[in-house]
Design goal:
This protein has 113 residues and is mainly α. The protein is built from 6 helices and 3 strands, in the order H-H-H-E-H-H-E-E-H.
Length: 113
C-alpha cells in the first residue's frame, strides 16, 4: 500500500482495528453505484477504475459517461496530481490513483453499512 503524505490510510486504519473488507469490495468495478447525479469524487474514481489496465480517451469517455470537454478537464486534473499517466494517448492509473480508488471504495462501503 502506498504511503500517504500528511494523512492516513483508511484501509490501513481498518486493518489495524481488525475490520475486514471483502476483497470483492475493494476490487469490484461496480462498487461505485451510479446515481442520477454523481459528485466529483465518484467521477474521478470511475475514470481511475476504467483506466486501470490502460485505456484510450474515447473508451474512458463512454465508460465514465462524460462529454469530451468534461473528460479533458478530469484527465488534466488527474495527470497533474499524479493519479493517471498518459503514454501516447493511452491513459493508465498510477499507484497513487489506485490507492485513491481503494480508499474511496472503502469509505463508500462504510457508509452503506
Amino acid at each position: 500500500m502506498a504511503r500517504q503524505r500528511g494523512g492516513f490510510s483508511i484501509v490501513k486504519k481498518l486493518q489495524e482495528e481488525d475490520l475486514e473488507l471483502a476483497p470483492e469490495i475493494l476490487e469490484d468495478e461496480e462498487a461505485i453505484a451510479p446515481s442520477h447525479r454523481r459528485d466529483r469524487h465518484d467521477i474521478i474514481a470511475e475514470i481511475l477504475i476504467t483506466a486501470k489496465g490502460g485505456k484510450k480517451k474515447t473508451y474512458i469517455m463512454y465508460k465514465a459517461r462524460l462529454s469530451h470537454s468534461q473528460l479533458k478537464l478530469y484527465l488534466e486534473l488527474l495527470n497533474r496530481n499524479g493519479m493517471i499517466a498518459n503514454n501516447n494517448g493511452v491513459y493508465k492509473t498510477t499507484p497513487k490513483g489506485l490507492t485513491f480508488v481503494q480508499e474511496f471504495q472503502a469509505i463508500n462501503f462504510l457508509f452503506r453499512q
